[in-house]
Each structure stands twice: as structure tokens, then as C-alpha cells.
Amino acid sequence: MSSRDAYRKACEYELDLYCVAPNANPPVCKLLNYGKFKFEQQKKAKESKKRQHIVEIKEVQLTPVIGQHDIDTKVKMATKFLEDGNKVKVGVKYRGRQMSHLEVGEEVMNKFISALSEIATIEKAPTMDGKWLTAVLTAKGKK
Q1: Residue 16 in contact with residue 33, Cβ under 8 Å?
Q2: Distance CA 134, CA 137 (A)
Q3: pLDDT of residue 37
Q4: What sections of 52-130 are H helices per DSSP?
Q5: Is the pTM of this model over 0.70?
Q6: Is the separation of the CB atoms in 82 and 139 below 8 Å?
Q7: DSSP category for residue 27
Q8: 120 contacts 140 by C-beta, under 8 angstroms
Q9: Per-residue confidence (pLDDT) for residue 143, from 0 to 100
Q10: 143 touches 101 (CB < 8 A)
């Protein structure tokens, strides 16, 4: 129908004429209550924003001379972080003469990663950044 007829029809029903596809030939319009339409759109946007989960990077720090019980505690913390859907950045900090025995820290890092191998995958392999050996892990189910 013509745009004038559509406008008359909208006035008759006390509704608004909303253009759905202005670039189509002929343009496609809809009769609706525009205020209610905008309210529903805002409500949907708010609901979808509420369901979003922002992935954070949680950090776990280790040292080359850490004990086994402390590693187990850190593994439990990292497991909780991964289950919550966050990424885990694992760091082994070297101090002083520990820098001359990097293999000890690498061994600690490998123990930690192998303890989490069932629930996590390596996103970034262990690399040296100054005095830090760092790696990033993500949950297997969530990527």
C-alpha cells in the first residue's frame, strides 16, 4: 500500500509507522506501538548483558623452591578459577642465584601444568620474561 494509506491506517489504530527495511524496493514498514517496542528492546539488551561473563586472567605465583603441599594448594585455587570460566596465568619467580638453575623452576611449572592437565589446556606455553617463567592456561570446556 502507499505510504499515505499506511500513515492513515496507523493514525486510525493510534499506532506508529515503523520502517523495517528502508532500502528495500518498495520500503517495508510496520504498524506498532513504538514506545512499547523500544522498551522491549532495552529489556532484551539488559537481559543479554546480565548473562554475559567477562573472562578475567587470574594469576598464580610459584617459586622454584616451593613445597609439594603448597603446589597442591595452588592447584586447588587454579582449579576453582578455571571452573569459574577464567584464565589462569602461572608464574614462577626466580630470585638471586635461582637464575643459574632455571631447570628447577621449569620442573615446578611442569608439575603444576600436569596436575591441571585434565581440566585445562595450555593457551601460551611457558616462556621466560625477565625473572619470570610464565604460562597461560584455559579451561578445556570453555575457549
Answers
A1: yes
A2: 10
A3: 93
A4: 68-83, 102-115
A5: no
A6: yes
A7: P
A8: yes
A9: 43
A10: no
Local mean pLDDT, 10-residue blocks, the chain (143 residues): 88 90 89 93 90 86 95 96 93 94 94 94 94 94 54
> At residue 98, what is the residue type?
Q
The amino acid occupying position 12 is E
Q: Tell me, what's the pLDDT at 26?
A: 85
Q: Which residue has the cell 609439594?
A: 68
Reply yes or no: is the peptide bond before residue 27 cis, omega within 30 of 0: no
Identify whether the C-beta of residue 16 lies closer than 8 Å to the C-beta of residue 8.
Answer: no
* Cα dihedral 99/100/102/108 (nearest 10): -80
Model pLDDT, residue 54? 80
- For residue 138, the tally of other CB atoms under 10 A from its CB is 20
pLDDT of residue 49: 85
Place of cell 548473562: 51
